[in-house]
Amino acid sequence: MRLDLSYDGTDFHGWAVQTELRTVQGELMRVFDMLTRDHIEIYCAGRTDAGVHARGQVAHLDITQRQWDALEDAGRVNRALPADIRIHRMERAPAGFDARFAAMWRRYTYRVCDRSTLMNPLMRRQTLTYHRALDIDAMNEAARSLLGLHDFAAYCKPRDFSSTVRSVQSLVWRREADSCVMTIQADAFCHSMVRSIVGAMLPVGDGRQPTTWPGQVLAGGERNVGVTVMPPHPLVLEEVGYPPDEQLAARQRVTRDMRTLDGACDDPS
Amino acid sequence: MRLDLSYDGTDFHGWAVQTELRTVQGELMRVFDMLTRDHIEIYCAGRTDAGVHARGQVAHLDITQRQWDALEDAGRVNRALPADIRIHRMERAPAGFDARFAAMWRRYTYRVCDRSTLMNPLMRRQTLTYHRALDIDAMNEAARSLLGLHDFAAYCKPRDFSSTVRSVQSLVWRREADSCVMTIQADAFCHSMVRSIVGAMLPVGDGRQPTTWPGQVLAGGERNVGVTVMPPHPLVLEEVGYPPDEQLAARQRVTRDMRTLDGACDDPS
User: What percent of chain B has pLDDT above 90?
Assistant: First the structure.
């Protein structure tokens, strides 16, 4: 089964099940287990960290027809779930589908308000308050040096045995009515990668660093203590992209070859 | 001074100061008093009820130059305010300005999600969850009978000595990506009027009442026990309209003549 869902990450300790902590995967498995009176494993495309939200998370689970019948439909599952998780679709996944390994790309947004008089209090749980004015053009110029295939070790929390080579397909800042929004799309992300990239962009935006700095950090090749990992609450997993059905199995093979199962990390938070 | 501001109404017991309860007016006056070391009265265009939000509230205060100097600017006041209130503009009000009595119209929105699979968890604090599918066209047909100048006593909590005659300038439902949104604009609103109108519309939308029903309730002329006053959290004061500066004083005279100061109510929540 393919599952499309959203959640408000505020009250979750991230996606992945943890003993005695409230997590998205934990809540989903609790409800699926309760409805099917069975044990169901659920795998997602982007294992978001504590406080990170999702508008377009994708997950998959292997279930029998009997278990599916017990779940009935997404409306029934939503009634059993807490209000901060909502399932948009429950559908039969095509052959070769794997929420994580068949994904082509993940797209995230990060929202920053640089002027208190523009701040919308109704959006404050998803917006960073920043006390210096940001120059969008300077940040977009700096962003260009991060595009393409690079080793993003400088922007990742190191984990043994896992590659930190990623391909950033787009990275754009734009000014909306009440905030500045960064949209970043990549094949996958390393742990804390998006929040570290934001941490390298904001000092460019406020003029404390030149537009060449984020590229220099990248070229440095190792975790840079000058780069702050920004807070999780303005980060939203917006969408996950998959290839056409007939290419799903091939895509899985490529991804699994590139990243070992143990060490792989595609959690950007 | 004219003040333009937003707030998240979730944690407020409405606009108006109440002893020992947290209110928007109370928080504003506490901060303005603290910064000016004086006592400042603040008056608003729409006295929202507990739980109602504002994206475009307008207020005014009479202050001296010395008091204004002490406040400095909106950024300084925002730093002293809690994060659920944000001031967008502080500016010298034109002669004849009165946030409440010079207003030409108020516009509110009310957000309802009628399908759990469309619900955006990040919007749930401003959205009503409704368990039956809504027919937007039927609600818009019903809405037409409420347009124009009427005695809205049937949709108001009665208050002695106050008129319940109001002019509804527009009332439209539209379906957005994740919810159905009602937008209503009137010269002013009686207490609980918007939430009662929503309470008469939803049974039309789900087919339990004919499209003629909201008009019949209106014609009944007194509070109708069949109409539920809907919850406050999906209601947002979006904008308040004023006439050109040279007509402000005249508009104030007209409004004050129409409604006695004691009994007047233009709080729709």
Answer: 87
- The answer to whether B75 contacts A116, with C-beta atoms less than 8 Å apart, is yes
CB contact under 8 A, A83 and B122: no
CATH of the domain at A78: 3.30.70.580
Question: For the whole model, what pTM was predicted?
Answer: 0.91
- Per residue in B82-94, pLDDT (tens digit) is 999 999 999 999 9
Residues A30 and A131 in one domain: no
Shared-domain flag, residues A85 and A134:
no
Model ipTM? 0.88
What gap in Å lies between CA A151 and CA A168, rounded to an integer? Answer: 11
Same domain, B144 and B216: yes
Residue A89 has pLDDT above 90, yes or no: yes
Specify the 3-state DSSP secondary structure of B101.
coil
Q: Is B75 on the interface with A (CB under 8 A)?
A: yes
Kindly identify which residue of chain A lies nearest to residue B234, measuring between CA atoms. Answer: A122
Last residue within a domain, chosen from A33, A66, A91: A91
C-alpha to C-alpha distances, A70 to A33, A36, A216, nearest whole angstrom: 10, 5, 55
Cα(A201)–Cα(A192) distance, integer angstroms: 14
* Residues of B catalogued as catalytic: 49
Residue B268 has pLDDT above 60, yes or no: no
CB contact residues (below 8 A), chain B span 106-165, against chain A: 115-122, 124-126, 129
How confident is residue A122, by pLDDT bands cut at 50, 70 and 90? Answer: very high
What one-letter code names the amino acid at B83? A
Test A86 with B236 for CB contact under 8 angstroms: no
Query: Which residues 154-193 on chain B approach chain A with CB closer than 8 angstroms?
Result: none
Q: How many domains does chain A have?
A: 2
Which residues in chain B have Cβ-Cβ distances shorter than 8 Å to A72?
none
Predicted local distance difference test score (pLDDT) of residue B158: 72
Out of B78, B84, B117, name the one closest to residue A78 (CB). B117
Report how far residue A47's alpha carbon sits from residue B169's, in angstroms, rounded to the nearest whole number.
48
Give the range of the structural domain holding residue A8, as residue numbers without chain letter. Answer: 2-91
Is A85's Cβ below 8 Å from some Cβ in B? yes
Mean pLDDT in residue range A203-219: 97
Tell me whether residue B264 is in a domain: no
- Torsion sign, CA atoms A31, A36, A41, A43: negative
Same domain (yes/no): B83, B189: no
Asked if B122's CB is within 8 angstroms of A236's CB, the reply is yes
Question: Residue A248: inside a domain, yes or no?
Answer: no
CATH of the domain at A132: 3.30.70.660
